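Email to the structure team, subject: Response regulatory domain-containing protein model.

Hi all, the expression group asked for a predicted structure before they design truncation constructs. Nothing fancy, just the tokens so they can compare against earlier work. One-line instruction: predict Response regulatory domain-containing protein, return tokens.
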Amino acid sequence: MENKIIAICTEAGLINSLKEALSAYRFEAFGTVEAASQSFAQELPNLILIDYDLKEGDGLQSFRQLQKISPRTNVIMLATEHNIPLAVAATKSGVADFLHKPLATKQLLAAVEKNLTSYGEIFLPPAEPVWLSGEGPVLVKLYKDLKQALIANQNILLTGERGINKLDVVRFIHEHGLKRQRNLKIVDLHNFSRPEQEALFWTSLQEIMANSAQIEEERCGTLFLDNLEAVEKNFRLSVLEFFRQKKENVDQTIMVIIGLYDKVSDERFPQGFGLIDLPPLRLRKDDLPLLAAKLMEQLASKHNKKVRGLTRQALTYLMLFDYPGNYQELANILDQAVLAAAGEMVELKDLPLDQQWLLSATAKQALKSGKISLKVGRREFEKELYSILLAKADGDIALLSRYLDIPRHNLQERIEALGSSPLD
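Reply from the structure team: attached below.
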């Protein structure tokens, strides 16, 4: 698709000249920043041209407004006079280039090609950690939301269940942020959960957010406030209100990420924040085989085991589990399974199946064929359950009868009647 260029300009003759010179691009002109910004929701431009000589205000004022809306987009400023102080001021403010009117087409095209913004270059999904790998639609949406927040340099409200490491995503955001050369500061609100600690929190926050003249690399680029739910409601509201206002003595360029486990429904959503909800593993079953394979490769190396994969039946039962502990629970399960494996493949019997998981997975497997009668469903459940237990007992009926406290003869007859056999 052709690169998109917009101009903020009110002079009809200049608009026509730009349109003709930039015919190889998708070009659109707007009279004000407000009008231009309405189009950003659909697609960000690859370059913005601002006429300094606007009817209302001036080009530098418009540029400062644009910096807040689309800070990554390069801007070229156009001006009538050979005003060196203006050119210096524009460059210091962050304007990518400064051109004089009337425009020379060759000079304009050279400046445009030099300053086109490519948003794809700012965003590369990570190879690590493992749980952020995959190609399923849920993960694709997460990366799309992250990319939009990064392009807009938007503050983020980050939610995620237990067992999801939010800090992995925070580090990823910081490494791709506009101020990645600065420090990532992490504040855990669990450390300020008592009422007498609130004053200490505000002192610490003011020091981090202060717009003071420090060495650039020592300043805060990204601030992560984790566990917002750990403090009482009035404290939470004060924190959100602080970031709504962001007074002049606060460094406006710091990206702020607030982490919590559940969205706080009884409070106003903070202005200037985008919501990113990290997906639980139960919604990413299409990525589970890939996640399991990558984790097992790491775990085999960690434990010096020659394990190279999962049997079909083991993977089937992993897919049936809902993982209330999310990615950490999957890692823990596979860690135990790799240690228990006697051969190159992790079998069903190697999985640390607790009673709740066993019953839940068995029921799902028995009913996966669709609508069946209660009698048939109960028989399929019992058959599947005995098959799993036989696998765990290595086919030893005597051991299984002692474990279940069922006479061996009765158990043998029931297993034969059901047609149960140890699952591979």
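The first helix runs from residue 12 to 21. The longest strand covers residues 220-226. Ping us if the truncation boundaries need rechecking.
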